[in-house]
Amino acid sequence: MKKDAVQFLKNLIGEVKIVSHNDVDGICSLAILQNFLNKRGIKEEHKITKVPIEKLETKDVMIFLDINQDNALKFASSQTLIIDHHQFTKKPSIPFYNPREVDKEAYIPASYLVYEVCSELENMEETKWISAVGVIGDKGDENSELCKKFVDSFENRQELDLISDYIFSAGLVDNVKGNEKVLEILRATKSPEEVVQNIYLKECYDEIQRELSKSKKQMEREGNIIFVEVESRYNIKSIIASQILEKNKSIVVVAYSTFEDFYNISTRTNMETGINLGEIVKKVAKICGGDGGGHRKAAGAKIEKKKFGVFMEEFISEVEKFVK
Ligand SMILES: [Mn+2]
């Protein structure tokens, strides 16, 4: 619950290790928490990681941000806090804050939650826009009334959208190095206007835009589902999926690309039929002996290439259950 998270942060002294998701929401959450810890004179080290986490060097005191609780719990130490917004199965006995605990359907990105919790103890006003960028990065405004109101309360909405794309692009181009640079930039700049002018971020963004226009895309349609194979040296599947969604009504996009003997799969939908891609992908990936999961409207999986036929077939039949 929120009050447990506040209590945890209130009692925090000395040093803490933060483990954060390597997407825009995770990075913004981390930037906000860093700002908070800095105000309170607490030292931090952090790890920005892809999910699910496979291995992690644990510390006595840890905070997990934007990482699925079921996954984070595997690495929890005696003093661990989790702030997250993904679906979870086990209710942990350690302090955690996830709005889904009270409302299963809640969709409030971690950046908002971290901002909210830290604001109970310190004046976090200067990081408010960072929390909006994180919310936008996770499409919180499209999935929650609360987030929509929050994001709409900013006059410079377009700037925040662009910064979200900047942060995403830096991660695609430079991976963890790019993520760290983003953190540095967020720490050093005081306003969104300044971030928008950052040359490094702009270059990363331009590079990804160029790549998007030249990447090869093989499309195949099966009812309401569009399968698209993406070939690029960057992981631009999710952007391509979003672009296809914008151009089509009521569809599911399955974008996939090769990684060694595997396909990395990214699914997105704008269909309003109570479809839950997170659950479908988790179930279908399991049938294929792979890993998968995510949110209602966006989910991902990694499966062996030779299982892709099975994946398609099972996925189609699961989606069809929702389409009348
Ligand atoms: Mn998130």
Indicate the topology.
Blueprint: H1 2-11, E1 15-21, H2 24-39, E2 43-49, E3 61-65, H3 69-72, E4 79-83, E5 96-97, H4 110-119, H5 128-137, H6 140-143, H7 145-152, H8 157-188, H9 192-196, H10 199-214, E6 216-222, E7 225-231, H11 237-247, E8 252-259, E9 262-269, H12 277-287, E10 291-294, E11 298-304, H13 308-320
Helix pairs in contact: 2-4, 2-5, 2-8, 4-5, 5-8, 8-10, 12-13
Bound molecules: manganese (II) ion.
Taking strands numbered 1, 2, ... along the chain, how are they ordered across the largest sheet? 6-7-8-9-11-10
Order of helical and strand elements: HEHEEHEEHHHHHHHEEHEEHEEH
What is Rg?
Answer: 19 Å
What is the terminal separation in angstroms? 39 Å
Strand content: 15-25%
The CATH topology of the largest domain turns out to be inorganic pyrophosphatase (n-terminal core)
Alpha-beta content class: alpha/beta
Largest sheet: 6 strands, mixed
Low-confidence stretches: none
The CATH architecture assignment of the largest domain turns out to be Alpha-Beta Complex
Instruction: Tell me the number of helical segments per DSSP (H or I, 4 or more residues long).
Output: 13
Mean pLDDT across every amino acid position: 94
Bound small-molecule species: manganese (II) ion
Give the proportion of residues in helices.
40-55%
Number of strands: 11
CATH class of the largest domain: Alpha Beta
Shape verdict:
globular
Short description:
With 324 residues, the chain is of the alpha/beta class.
